[in-house]
From TrEMBL:
It comes from Athene cunicularia (Burrowing owl). Belongs to the ST7 family. Keywords: Membrane, Transmembrane, Transmembrane helix. The keyword Signal does not apply. This is Suppressor of tumorigenicity 7 protein-like. GO terms for cellular component: membrane. InterPro entries: ST7 (IPR007311), TPR-like_helical_dom_sf (IPR011990).
């Protein structure tokens, strides 16, 4: 038998008890060789125009990503790439399974009281909210901008349904119509329903309330509607008082009629305040607080504080603060900053930062500075509006305490009171930033109040109009991807500029980088010789 006809590649019979050795991936190496050879030929034939177009395109795309990241961060406060990574990519790679559930963040021995002590982002009704028809609508007619957000108006609709409706509305046709009116989204539909309710019952107080809020285009017209609502509301309230103990339904009706009466009287006092009848407004507010002392959660005292400041009755303002600036009662920017204003009034006229730095602060000045620090810690957004470092917008119908919405509402009504006291804004300007040295980590630990809530920015963006730049505290650092895309855009632009100015040199540089980037140990070996040496080695091992 001719053994020469047998090829060396003919496999021998396997030896019993020994495993066959695996064949080296010769075809894979050959395919890799062809691919790298093709890439090498392609790169060697590229012209300087290609490298210039490549760098310009890379710079343009990274610039677009950078601009979009910056816009998303300014509008929503987060990085879009990070948000997508957390919400979409993490579940795909199993990150959500490894994260502990939210309920597990509290240990077994932790009491329920510790959860209640954590501050919550609760939205409150603005005590000094404007009239929709006479103020908000007039602003929209003049500027063409919508001053109220859908979220804010939806909260107001829920408030109206809670205040002005009850289970016995089905017994009176006019109240049934008004119950539907408060749920309407279209203002014209609400106004039409109010007139329908008045046709059924000329003494429907809630119908007059709706017309005063939304149809009246001046404060004078709104006051006329509220006076009609007061007349009808007092009559219905007396009837409800006489029969409220007959059944639970009558008790619910009495609560509803009480809410209507208190709302109408409060708005009448605000109309008198806006029309310049300050003393009349103060008297109406005091009478309302005496008649319904249990309704302090409506914060009528904040309306009274603003009216007394307009009268410059500072002794009466101090008396109101002594009653409501208590540790057991919820605080507000109106209370904290009004207390700071009264203490600043005693020293602001003679205050000078140069003199104070030489002789030190007196006791009265220390008290004033501490009061300002206390107010700034409660709401750090207010000073920028009082010092006119940020532009004001119309306050929303709901506010978030310690948030930017509360700061806008407070400064909108109280800026004039700070300007009236000589030197008060100067004292605020010199001292308010010192608050932040006492609370270097406001989200973790406060000084006189709870740590600053981290959810205010999201809620304020829902309450304030889109054309207003929401104030953020504490200032957030720029996300990593903004820095990354900015650096990538700058680097690509620099390469494009160099390629345009020195095309031949940059082509040589690009080819040198592509050769160096291959994993070749010996510098004198080219890519082709490296692959050939690899093939020879594999063939030798097979033999």
């Amino acid at each position: 038998m001719n053994l020469g006809c047998l090829s060396q590649d003919t496999p021998s019979h396997p030896v019993p008890g020994l495993a066959a050795a695996p064949r080296p991936p010769v075809l894979l190496v050959k395919a890799l060789f062809l691919f790298l050879l093709t890439v090498t030929v392609f790169l060697s034939t590229l012209t300087p125009k290609f490298y210039f177009a490549l760098t310009v395109t890379s710079s343009f795309i990274s610039g677009l990503i950078f601009v979009f990241e910056w816009w998303h961060f300014r509008k929503y406060g987060t990085s879009f790439i990070e948000q997508v990574s957390v919400s979409h990519l993490r579940p795909l790679i199993g990150g959500a399974e490894n994260s502990p559930p939210a309920a597990a963040s509290f240990s077994a021995g932790e009491s329920e009281a510790s959860r209640q002590n954590m501050p919550e982002c609760k939205v409150w009704r603005n005590p000094l909210n404007l009239f929709r028809g006479a103020e908000y609508s007039r602003y929209m007619w003049v500027t063409g901008k919508e001053p109220l957000t859908y979220y804010d108006m939806n909260l107001s609709a829920q408030d109206h349904q809670n205040f002005f409706t009850c289970d016995t509305d089905a017994l009176r046709p006019s109240d049934t119509v008004m119950q539907k009116a408060w749920r309407e989204r279209n203002p014209q539909a609400r106004i039409k329903a109010a007139y329908q309710a008045l046709e059924l019952n000329n003494d429907c107080a809630t119908a007059y309330v709706l017309l005063a809020e939304e149809e009246a285009t001046t404060i004078v017209d709104a006051e006329k509607y509220f006076k009609q609502a007061l007349k009808a509301g007092e009559m219905i309230y007396r009837k409800s008082q006489n029969c409220h103990s007959q059944s639970p339904q009558h008790e619910a009706q009495l609560r509803r009629d009480t809410n209507v009466l208190v709302y109408v009287k409060r708005r009448l006092a605000m109309c008198a305040r806006k029309l310049g009848r300050i003393r009349e407004a103060v008297k109406m507010m005091r009478d309302l607080m005496k008649e319904f002392p249990l309704l302090s959660m409506l914060n009528i005292h904040e309306n009274l504080l603003e009216a007394l400041l307009e009268l410059q009755a500072y002794a009466d303002v101090q008396a109101v603060l002594a009653k409501y600036d208590d540790i057991s009662l919820p605080k507000s920017a109106a209370i904290c900053y009004t207390a700071a204003l009264l203490k600043a009034r005693a020293v602001s006229e003679r205050f000078s930062p140069e003199t104070a730095s030489k002789r030190g602060l007196s006791t009265a000045e220390i008290n004033a500075v501490e009061a300002i620090h206390r107010a700034v810690e409660f709401n750090p957004h207010v000073p920028k509006y009082l010092l006119e470092m940020k532009s004001l917008v119309l306050p929303p119908e709901h506010i978030l305490k310690r948030g930017d919405s509360e700061a806008v509402a407070y400064a909108f009504f109280h800026l004039q009171h700070w300007k009236r006291i000589e030197g008060a804004l100067n004292l605020l300007h010199c001292t308010w930033e010192g608050t932040f040295r006492m609370i270097p980590y406001p989200l973790e630990k406060g000084h006189l109040f709870y740590p600053y809530p981290s959810c205010t920015e999201t809620a304020d963006r829902e309450l304030l109009p889109t054309f207003h730049e929401v104030s953020v505290y504490p200032q957030k650092e720029l996300p990593f991807f903004i820095h990354f895309t900015a650096g990538l855009c700058s680097f690509s632009a620099m390469l494009a500029l160099l390629t345009h100015q020195f095309p031949e040199l940059m082509v040589v540089f690009a080819k040198a980088v592509s050769i160096v980037s291959w994993p070749i140990k010996s510098p004198e070996l080219s890519m082709k010789s490296f692959i050939l040496a690899l093939l020879v080695k594999i063939e030798g091992e097979r033999r």
